[in-house]
Amino acid sequence: MVPSTGAMVGRVTRGGQGDFAKGGTANVPLVGIDCSMPNFLIEKLVSGGQTGADRAALDAAISLGLPHGGWCPKGRRAEDGTIPTCYDLTETPGVSYPVRTEWNVRDSDGTVVFTLGKLATGGSRKTIAIAKRLRKPRLHISRDGGDGACALLRDFIASHGIRVLNIAGSREGKEPGIGAWVEGVLTKVAD
User: Fold this and answer.
1) What is the pLDDT of residue 31?
2) If residue 91 lies in a helix (H) or strand (E), which one and from where to where?
3) CA-to-CA distance for 190 and 30, rounded, in angstroms?
4) Per-residue pLDDT, 35
5) What distance in Å separates the CA atoms of residue 134 and residue 145, rounded to the nearest whole number?
6) Which of 24, 48, 50, 120 is spaced 20 to 30 Å from 178 by Cα?
7) How would you classify the pairing of strands 68-69 and 44-46?
8) In this structure, what is the dihedral angle of CA atoms 20, 124, 39, 163, given to the nearest 10 degrees?
9) What is the pLDDT of residue 115?
10) Number of Cβ atoms within 10 Å of the Cβ of 166
11) Strands 90-91 and 68-69: what pairing?
12) Residue 139 and residue 20: Cα distance in Å, rounded?
């Protein structure tokens, strides 16, 4: 049950341009957040098609009727085998995940990396580093036990005028439940 006291239940980390460049961590209250976004700016959701956060973005786009796409490794490689063809992804020339990641960051207006744990590790950490190197707006949202991500994501999209949003983050095999959480956040923000 969600506390009705306005207690701090989520932890969100930030990184990007302007105020986001300094990084840091902010506790975001769950109770009382209006996740609706008037004049939703997103025209397309992009991801690499991996299980977890990536695939949740593609599923959210499909359910919201938004165009989706992005780059995926040659052979549509993912931790669960082959990325289903229902996702409109373009294969890179090689099987490397980092190439796919860089091309998705490059071809989008901003990148959001979702993790359940407080720290971005592995591919999530590399995605943030690539976005920083390419001087692209970036946001790391971490959930530990709550969902306080909607307001920060909405503000990130609006403040950077993002039309093409790249979604990255943990694989389902690394952080079980990440996919359902990410799809829920994206759906709430778009409503």
Assistant:
1) 39
2) strand 90-91
3) 17
4) 53
5) 32
6) 24
7) parallel
8) 90
9) 96
10) 30
11) unpaired
12) 8
70: its two tokens: 């992005």
Residue ranges of domains in the chain:
11-19+37-190
pLDDT band at 23 (very low <50, low <70, confident <90, very high): very low
State both tokens at 143: 């959930």
* pLDDT computed for residue 147 by the predictor: 58
DSSP H or E segment with residue 125? helix 122-133
Each residue's pLDDT tens digit, 125-155? 999 999 999 999 999 999 874 557 888 899 9
Q: What is the DSSP string of 166-189?
A: EEEE--TTTSTTHHHHHHHHHHHH
pTM: 0.80
Residues in the chain: 191
Residue whose tokens read 């289903």? 84
pLDDT digits (tens, 9 = 90+) for 67-101: 999 999 999 999 999 999 999 999 999 999 999 99
- Among the listed residues 71, 108, 110, the one whose alpha carbon sits nearest the alpha carbon of residue 87: 71
Q: Any residues with CB less than 8 A from the CB of 9 and at least 6 apart, and which?
A: 2, 3, 29, 30, 31, 145, 146, 147, 148
d(CA 161, CA 78): 31
Residue 178 has pLDDT above 70, yes or no: yes
